[in-house]
Every structure is written in structure tokens, then in C-alpha cells.
Specification:
By secondary structure, the chain is an alpha/beta fold. Helices cover about 35% and strands about 15% of the residues. It has 22 helices and 19 strands. The strands form 6 sheets. It has a 6-stranded mixed sheet with strand order 2-1-3-4-5-6. α3 packs parallel to α6, α5 packs across α19 and α15 runs parallel beside α17. The longest helix is centred in the first third of the chain and has 17 residues. It is globular.
Length: about 600
């Protein structure tokens, strides 16, 4: 076998634009001995190193598996275009960042599928590793390819590429899968690949093995007895059972990453259940981390990394019950060290008026809030229980506390949306800007970030059609016209990317052939503006004869079987239907 470590050092690192992404010598890396392990796992993040190294879930699983005796877990990321070209030219296989071992030599490769537009990156990584793209074509000695995270909640569009999906929180089921593979290696080394996968399907709760199921008009159904007809989403009942190493000794990147801070997950699940939000509906029930555990993790994480920022992460951090006391504790301990505290986008209610004051002793940048819609009527319809009054008061408090800018998230394309709802996105931002006049006489800098509604699976909107591109272009033009020469800066998601996102989460197994065709035509790093090429995807859609409009732009009757119907989160379909009716009750009010 070639000495990959030497070849990487000689033929790859000197040739790429940012070699620090591929070095693999991060502070706090575990670097366990691959040769001495009973079972080996490579956790694959299908995006650039600078993004993947900052992802908390990826780090949690990395430390969880490395905490297991007999398990060696390495990491790998998607090479950028220049590195991919060099690796293909040198016949250099994709490798583990720490071990420099070829990915094909691992027992298991686990992909974190965080976002729909990462799917072609998965194919790039498998191909660079020398592993067959289609699960049906893999040999007896190929690694078991596992997918998890957000895309596993509606996995059929990528089912042909994966051997197993872990549905839900990965810590316990992925650990159980790794242990089962280890046991099979030692006790039953002659088992065929098919037999090993069948045991996984039968013995690991929340594991979905697509080869034992088929897509029919009645939904996705088992092809043989002994595998569950429904896959229940896993959830970690006690957050204290997550690996403490992930928060206390996080990996510190060699190259500059998108986030460089101590990230502490304070809560899983969200009590708000906004009717468009897939994560809010799938990640229940709510679980919270103890304040003392958070403080200890912050103390250890800062010491182990040298960072000067703590991020309190959850779907809705402002709903953490002890948030005010927690921030006061963090300020009391770390403000003198110039450590700042950051919060994700906040639910804008009366509590927002208090939060800026709680971080008054640390540096200020911008405040991010999620308004989602321009009118109270539309916010009530989508389950966003906030008022403009609270929003105005909260943003005024932010100016008073020293924040320099405010970013507000909105969506367009909501059911029942009117021209007034669209125009009020701009006028709400003007009113938010004007609240600064009461503080220092100036208008505040407001950025409105507008995304396009993708009706996601497992939400009350899953049956809704996505609006047409023509509708979205009209919305964009209207908001650009209103905001010209004003203090409101309006930014938009790329419309075609959102439509592709809809195809990749709402489709069935027929979508896999389109993904494969697009990848063969050159689709790479589709979430990156410099690599995005809608023409490639249009050609792939034409070549594979997918009915794009039927999947993306047509309403789904509530009685029809859904491609994701066999995946069962905490809330059932009856609950979603009731919530959809409540949405239309608001929209139909006089």
C-alpha cells in the first residue's frame, strides 16, 4: 500500500490554495490508533473543512465514538475544487484527516447530512474514496455508508446512495450500530454484507436500511418480514449523556473557520412549533442542559481553546427557562476576560427587551431576530406568536444596549400571503430602524434577509405547494424597489437554490437519478455561490424526465401517502393536519 501520508505532504499540500484545511493537526484532536482499533469510523462532513470543523453535531459524534473502547473515529471533509482536481490527477484517495488512512479502509463512514444542497458533495467524496456511489453496487469489503442529521428525516431522494440512515439524535443509535458492527466482525466475520445490514435493520432502533424497503403508491413499505414498517426518530432523553469532551475540549481548526467560538448546546427541541419549521416539529421533546453543566463547559472550553466567545446554541435559546440567570453568571465570570456571549436569532417577544442589557459588559456587533413575516396576521397564521409592539420595543432596547446593526429574517411564499404582507416586510424594517431615533437621533441600520418558503416534510405545511419562481422574482423586485435609497438593506436567498432544496426534501427515490446526473455533469458545492450552476441541474432534470412541478409546485392531498411517511417523529400526522386547519382559520378571518 502506498504511503498516503507522504504523498499527501508531497503532492497535495504544496499544490492547493489553502493547505491548512487538509493538515489534520487540530488542537484537541483525538488521533487514536487505527491499526489497534476493533472497529474504525470516519465521520464525513460533505462540505468544506472551514464549515464542517465548526459544526457542533459533527464534533459531538466524533468525541462520542472516540470515548468508546476499541473504537477509533477519524474525520474527513469535502475537498475544494482545486484539491479534487489534484487528487484525481494523482490517483490520491480521500483520506482520514488524522490517520491519513484511505477512507475505503474504514469499517463505517458516517455522513452528516445537514442541508439538501450538500448531496452532490456526498457523491464527490464517495467517488474520491473509490467507493461505489450506489449502495446496490458496493462490494463485500466496502465500508458501511451511514447518513444522519436533517436529510435523514426525508431520506428517499438520497436513499440509493446510503446503506443505513440514523433517524434523529445520533449519539445512542450510532454508538449501538458501531458496537454491533464490532461484535459482528469478531463473532461472525463470514457474514455477507446483506446479512450485516439486515441485523442492523432488525437490532438498531431508529436505523433505516433502504435496501429492505420499496417505494410504492402506498408509500415506502418493507420488502421482507422482520424489519420495522415505521422508523421512530431517536431522541437523547438526558442531555448530560452527551460526550463532555465535545464542549470542554472542542477541536480548534488550523485554517480560519466560519465560527471560532466555544459552542454549548443549552437545549434540544423548541416549544414554539412555528408551522413552517421542520426542526421544531421533529426534534421534540424538549430537553435542557443544567446551568451548572453549562458554566463548567464554558470554563473548560475557553481554557482548552483560547477562544473569546461563548455561543449558547439551541433552536430557540430565548426559551431556555433560566437564560437571564445563566447570562448573568457567564458575565460575572468572563466579562473581565473580554469574553462575549452570542445567541442565535431570537424569538422577538417582551423578553428581547431584557436580553441586550444582560450582555452589556461585552462587545456588541449585530443583533439577529426572526420576524418571519411582515404583518401580525401572517405571523399568527404561521404560529409565530409575536407582535410588532414587542418587536419595536425589543429593537429599541438593543440600540440602547449598544448594538450597531439589526438583521431580521423573513420568508416569502407563505400560504395566504398578500401584496400587503410583502410590502410590510419593508415598512416593518423602516419602523424598526426609526426606533433608534428615540435613542440617539439616528436611523438604525437594518438588514432584511428574505428566504423563500420550502414546505418541509413533517410540518403542517408539508402538503402546501411551493410558490413559482415568477412569484418569487416579483416579490424580490417589489422589495428592491421599496428599499432603494433607504436605511433598509434587503438581501435574498437564491431562488433556484430554494427550488432545488424543495425537490431534494419532498421527492422520492426517483430523484436519485437526477442527483447522480447532475453530479456527472459537474455539480459541486451547490450551496456556494461561486460554484452554483442552475443550468447543470436543469439539464439533469431534462435528461432524467423528473416531473419537477409535481414534486415542488403542486399541493399534495392530505390522504395521499408521502415519501417520508415511514419516518415517524414525535408528532403524528393528525396533529399536523389540525395545525394546518388552524393556519387557514387565521387566514380566512375577515
Amino acid at each position: 500500500m502506498r504511503n498516503l501520508k507522504e504523498i499527501i505532504s508531497r503532492c497535495l499540500l504544496p499544490m492547493v490554495r489553502q493547505p491548512s484545511q487538509y493538515i489534520g493537526l487540530e488542537v484537541n484532536a483525538r488521533c487514536k490508533d487505527i491499526d489497534a482499533a476493533d472497529v474504525t469510523v470516519a465521520l464525513a462532513f460533505p462540505d468544506a473543512y472551514t464549515i464542517g470543523i465548526s459544526h457542533l453535531g459533527h464534533q459531538v459524534l466524533y468525541h462520542t465514538l472516540n470515548d468508546m473502547p476499541g473504537v477509533a473515529c477519524d474525520r474527513t471533509y469535502c475537498p475544494l475544487a482545486d484539491a479534487e482536481q489534484i487528487m484525481r490527477g494523482q490517483a490520491l484517495p480521500l483520506f482520514g484527516w488524522e490517520s491519513r488512512r484511505a477512507l475505503a479502509d474504514f469499517d463505517i463512514i458516517g455522513f452528516s447530512l445537514t442541508y439538501e444542497l450538500c448531496v452532490t458533495n456526498v457523491l464527490t467524496m464517495l467517488d474520491l474514496a473509490g467507493i461505489a456511489l450506489l449502495a446496490a453496487d458496493r462490494s463485500e469489503t466496502d465500508p458501511i455508508i451511514v447518513g444522519g442529521d436533517a436529510l435523514a428525516d426525508s431520506p428517499e431522494p438520497v436513499a440509493d446512495f446510503f446503506d443505513v440512515f440514523i433517524i434523529g439524535d445520533g449519539e445512542e443509535p450510532l454508538s449501538a450500530l458501531v458496537k454491533l458492527v464490532c461484535d459482528m466482525k469478531s463473532a461472525s466475520p463470514d457474514l455477507s454484507r446483506e446479512e450485516r445490514l439486515l441485523r442492523i435493520a432488525q437490532k438498531i432502533p431508529s436505523a433505516y436500511v433502504p435496501r429492505f424497503y420499496e417505494q410504492t403508491d402506498g408509500g415506502v413499505m418493507p420488502k421482507l418480514e422482520g424489519v420495522p414498517a415505521e422508523i421512530r426518530r431517536a431522541y437523547l432523553a438526558d442531555m448530560s449523556k452527551t460526550s463532555p469532551t465535545a464542549m470542554k475540549k472542542p477541536l480548534v481548526p488550523i485554517a480560519e473557520a466560519v465560527h471560532e467560538r466555544v459552542v454549548i448546546e443549552v437545549m434540544r427541541g423548541c416549544p414554539n412549533l412555528c408551522r413552517f419549521c421542520q426542526a421544531g416539529h421533529t426534534r421534540l421533546p424538549i430537553r435542557r442542559r443544567d446551568v451548572e453543566e453549562i458554566i463548567a463547559a464554558a470554563r473548560a472550553g475557553l481554557e482548552a481553546t483560547g477562544y473569546d466567545e461563548i455561543s449558547l446554541l439551541s433552536l430557540s435559546t430565548s426559551d431556555y427557562p433560566q437564560l437571564e440567570g445563566l447570562i448573568e453568571r457567564l458575565n460575572a465570570e468572563f466579562a473581565d476576560q473580554k469574553v462575549s456571549i452570542s445567541l442565535p436569532s431570537l424569538r422577538v417577544d417582551s423578553q428581547l427587551q431584557v436580553l441586550p442589557k444582560l450582555t452589556a459588559h461585552v462587545r456588541k456587533g449585530g443583533l439577529t431576530i426572526a420576524a418571519e413575516a411582515g404583518t401580525d396576521r401572517m405571523r399568527r397564521a404561521i404560529g409565530k406568536g409575536i407582535t410588532e409592539e414587542d418587536m419595536l420595543a425589543g429593537v429599541k432596547a438593543a440600540w440602547e444596549a449598544g448594538y450597531q446593526t439589526v438583521k431580521v429574517y423573513f420568508m416569502a411564499g407563505l400560504p395566504g400571503e398578500t401584496l400587503e404582507d410583502i410590502e410590510q416586510i419593508y415598512w416593518l424594517c423602516r419602523r424598526l430602524s426609526n426606533t433608534r431615533r428615540e435613542v440617539d437621533g439616528h436611523r438604525g441600520a437594518i438588514t432584511a434577509s428574505v428566504s423563500w418558503l420550502v414546505p418541509k416534510p413533517h410540518t403542517p405545511m408539508q402538503w402546501e405547494p411551493m410558490q413559482t419562481p415568477e412569484y418569487f422574482f416579483d416579490v424580490r423586485n417589489k422589495l428592491l424597489e421599496l428599499s432603494r435609497r433607504s436605511p433598509v438593506n434587503v438581501k435574498f436567498h437564491r431562488i433556484e437554490q430554494s427550488m432545488l432544496e424543495a425537490l431534494l426534501c419532498r421527492g422520492g427515490r426517483e430523484v436519485a437519478k437526477t442527483i447522480l446526473a447532475a453530479w456527472k455533469l459537474g455539480a459541486r458545492l451547490d450551496s456556494w455561490s461561486e460554484h452554483w450552476n442552475w443550468e447543470i441541474w436543469q439539464q439533469a432534470l431534462e435528461e432524467t424526465a423528473i416531473d419537477f412541478d409535481a414534486i415542488v409546485h403542486r399541493e399534495i392531498p392530505t390522504g395521499r401517502a408521502l415519501p417520508w411517511g415511514h419516518i415517524r417523529p414525535h408528532l403524528d400526522e393528525e396533529f399536523l393536519i389540525k395545525q394546518r386547519r388552524k393556519m387557514y382559520d387565521v387566514l380566512n378571518e375577515e
